[in-house]
Design brief:
Helix content: 40-55%
Largest sheet: 5 strands, antiparallel
Strand order of the largest sheet: 1-2-3-5-4
């Protein structure tokens, strides 16, 4: 390691760029190589960033190779030793900046439990990279990558370009997500103009077309097919949605297993707490150790808790932890009595042996149900890589993050289960149930209870349905006619309306509908009802359906 460079980042923590010189004995190696060390504010933040990288990989977003290095590993000491050598070399040559940076890295290593080690990738910010926007193939590739990155940002709720998964979004942001996520996904999937405008905004006017402006003058619109570019953006977003559906079951299974295991853990703790409370009303061990629930742990268990107190800074996590022991009453046995002290140690020794056995079994269940599942599916969460003493904290923290990720995925899936209705005219649309889910709060409903069977008398609804559509058009409204699939019942009513109110023959109405909605297929019974209407209105049947 030759020289470190420190950079402070907004997402929390410090990043060090470490440069390695070329070995004198190896002429084939590059002149210089580099690695990136990030030390975050806590072990949980570092592990969360590793989890974010895993989601990026699963959604198809390229990221540097990265891993978590813990302070108990031999590699940690090697990093410290190398930093000491670089610091000494900086002192010899009078490099004050290098000496200060090494000192700060050493201090961070002393205070931290882990670090994030990443490949250094040569590149530039996308907006400053002219090659990303010059040739059509490059532009299409850029738009496609942005589509996948947008999906990643939605899933992990990323607010900067570092994919660190937040533990629990603030309530206000979470409420806004429930409103904004569906709208964005529905419009992106179903509106080409909106997608173009969104691409225009996120590339700072380099791609796409604004809803209110012309194409930016810096790009020659004649040399680029913006429809293809926007389609690449939307297409990769849809592909990422499909990838998300592919591993959604894994995330859901993992969450359910963690939730079940944590409930078992709380049952174990509650049971041992109640045993402790029943033992003469004494709730504090003779060691007078305070803190989080250490009064019913053995020596090793106390270390297990104390080691993790630094990870309990989050208020929500503190609420779930057992409370400190209350002060001893005046009538309680005094620690100065050899008999009482002996009784205490005997009682707690028995309780601790039983508790430790249950905790060992719980850890084995965690390995079998959760860690093994992740290994089999090659899903690296970033958690459970450290000391086993951290396992319950890691399980809880991972469960909390997965809970909110699954909530956002549900919003995305729900919005993704929509479609753009087919436009017959500026005021008349046809579609299936997915089209009706796009903007349900804006609809004034007119429901007809009718089955899609050949012997159903759908002709009884022709006049009523046509009147409803006509009234909506005359009032300046728009009408979506839909059934479940958008094939038979809705198509039949639209054809009847075009014949009754637009004075078309069945042939003309059928051609008009098929031009925009090719899946229209009335069943045989409905086709006969339309033929009868055609003969009644025009004197003959113009089309044999």
């Amino acid at each position: 390691m030759n020289k470190p460079l420190e950079v402070t980042v907004n997402s929390g923590g410090v990043v060090f760029f470490v440069l390695f010189g070329k070995p004198l004995s190896d002429e084939s190696s590059p002149k210089e190589s580099a690695v990136v060390i990030k030390i975050a504010s806590s072990r949980m933040a570092t592990q969360s960033e590793r989890l974010g990288y895993e989601f990026a990989k699963m959604i198809g977003v390229r990221t540097p190779q990265a891993r978590v290095v813990h302070n108990f590993s031999p590699e940690w000491q090697q990093i410290k030793d190398a930093t000491e050598k670089v610091k000494d070399a900086a002192i010899v040559v009078g490099d004050d900046v290098g000496e200060l940076t090494c000192s700060e890295l050493l201090e961070a290593l002393e205070l931290s439990k882990c670090l994030f080690l990443m490949n250094y990738i040569h590149g530039s910010p996308i907006l400053e990279n002219s090659s990303a926007f010059c040739l059509e193939e490059n532009v299409k590739r850029t738009a496609a990558l942005l589509g996948r990155i947008l999906m990643l940002d939605l899933v992990i709720r990323n607010e900067d370009r570092l994919p660190c998964i937040p533990r629990r979004p603030p309530a206000g942001k979470r409420t806004n997500d429930h409103s904004n996520y569906p709208k964005l996904v529905v419009l992106l999937l179903n509106s080409h103009n909106y997608s173009s405008s969104l691409l225009y905004d996120i590339t700072w006017r380099k791609l796409g077309i604004s809803l209110s402006e012309e194409v930016n003058g810096k790009i020659d619109s004649r040399s680029l097919d913006f429809n293809k570019i926007v389609n690449e953006f939307r297409g990769e977003f849809c592909e990422a949605l499909g990838d998300l559906q592919g591993f959604h079951i894994l995330l859901l299974t993992l969450y359910q297993k963690l939730d079940s295991l944590l409930r078992v853990f709380l049952t174990i703790i509650d049971k041992n707490s109640s045993v402790d409370d029943d033992s003469g009303g004494i709730s504090e061990s003779p060691s007078n150790v305070g803190g989080v629930g250490v009064h019913f742990f053995s020596t090793s268990s106390k270390e297990w808790v104390n080691e993790n107190l630094a990870d309990l800074s989050d208020p929500e996590l503190q609420k779930t932890a057992p409370k400190s022991s209350p002060p001893r009453s005046k009538d309680s046995p005094d620690g100065s009595s050899p008999i009482s002290r002996e009784n205490w140690h005997g009682r707690y020794a028995k309780a601790d042996i039983k508790l430790n056995k249950e905790l060992e079994l719980w850890n084995e269940m965690l390995k079998t149900d959760v860690i093994k599942l992740c290994q089999e599916k090659k899903f690296n969460t970033g958690f459970f890589e450290g000391n086993e003493n951290n396992s319950v904290f890691d399980a809880y923290e991972l469960k909390v993050r997965l809970e909110h990720i699954l909530e956002r995925i549900a919003l995305i899936f729900d919005a993704g289960n929509t479609e753009r209705p087919s436009s017959i005219s500026t005021s008349l649309f046809i579609g299936g149930a997915r089209a009706a889910r796009s903007l349900p709060e804006l609809f004034q409903y007119k429901n007809f209870a009718i089955s899609d069977s050949e012997d159903t008398k759908i002709s009884d609804l022709f006049e009523e349905a046509s009147n409803f559509i006509e009234n909506a058009e005359h009032s300046g409204g728009r009408v979506l006619v839909h059934c479940f699939e958008g094939r038979s019942r809705s198509a039949t009513l639209v054809l009847a309306y075009l014949m009754l109110r637009k004075h078309m023959t069945l042939l003309e109405a059928h051609d008009t509908l098929l031009r925009v909605h090719r899946r229209a297929r009335p069943n045989q019974g409905f086709a006969k009802a339309l033929s009868d209407l055609d003969k009644e209105l025009c004197g003959k049947v113009s089309l044999d359906l």
